[in-house]
Amino acid sequence: MRIEIDTWASQGREVHRAAELLREGGVLAIPTDSGYSLACDLHSPKSIDKLYALKQSPRSHPLSILLADVDDVGRYAGHISTLTYRTLKRLLPGPYTFILNAGREIPKRMHKKRRTIGIRVPDAAIPRALALQLGRPLVTTSLRQDEEERFVVDPNHIERDLGHQLAAVVDGGLGLERPTTVVDMTCTPYLILREGQGDVDVI
User: Fold this and answer.
1) Which domains does the chain have, with CATH numbers?
2) Would you tell me which of 136, 139, 165, 171 could form a disulfide with 155, CB atoms 3.0–4.6 Å apart?
3) pTM assigned to the model
């Protein structure tokens, strides 16, 4: 199934339909600000298991959560300092993945012994609209197309290769190949783990 959503959509039948599929335990392919990702409902353990299976990743591979708004971070992260919170408020929404201590509402199957979680609040309107409609974060993992770890950016390719295993492919047009900047905020000073779209000089 394919659900086409305008790039700047924030509501409407298509967003509601996609959110219902997530709520029912489906795994979707969705556009983000760094290519397409697999996504499921944070409150659906079976969906998280299926996401791992589709990605063909070991449990040691970290997943991220995608939030509708930066104000939701405090609910899903552990204790964060005032400086860290101000930094998040200043840079989000944006093309960053911030590594924070996992809060109590993050399922243990997502972080195991690491006890940390990647948190995203992207610029892209579609994934934030889905999280808002769902009423809780999306669990996400990027789709890569080759050993060079380039992101899958064409929804046609996803539908061809994975469409029969997904509840839907959310078509938001072609994505960007360049990844997010990943910043570990559990240490001082913050550690840049991957330099991508987000400007590291402002951190």
Assistant:
1) 2-202 (3.90.870.10)
2) 171
3) 0.91
